[in-house]
Amino acid sequence: MPYRNVKDPTEVVVIFKTHLREGADSEAYAKTSRRMHELVEQIPGFISIKAYTGEDGEEIDLVRFANEDALAVWKEQPEHREAQRRGREEFYDRYSVQACKVVRDYEFRIEDLERGPDAERDRRKAQGRSTR
Question: What's this model's pTM, rounded to 2 decimal places?
């Protein structure tokens, strides 16, 4: 499977796990969460955000930033700081945050198999990725 080791990693992935406390205002929480998603998308260096909810109610957001500078801008964004405060005081009974550097990057796409072995190499070259 094609992959590339990242020699000087800059991309940061934040894993944000939360659990709503009993009696939290779910409508206010949903509104705040939507607003945070809108705001983070405006940060230069933001790549993507994906949200998942487990059967136990735990929510996990995976947020990708191009570098730590972009993450620092997000961390200090005023509305985000206020949402953090509200999270502790109104919404969550627990949460955790992990910021991780990407050290390996690879993917599989079925369409690359259908086009043949040269298609994957050409696509990765166009993206500036290693072909080894």
Answer: 0.77
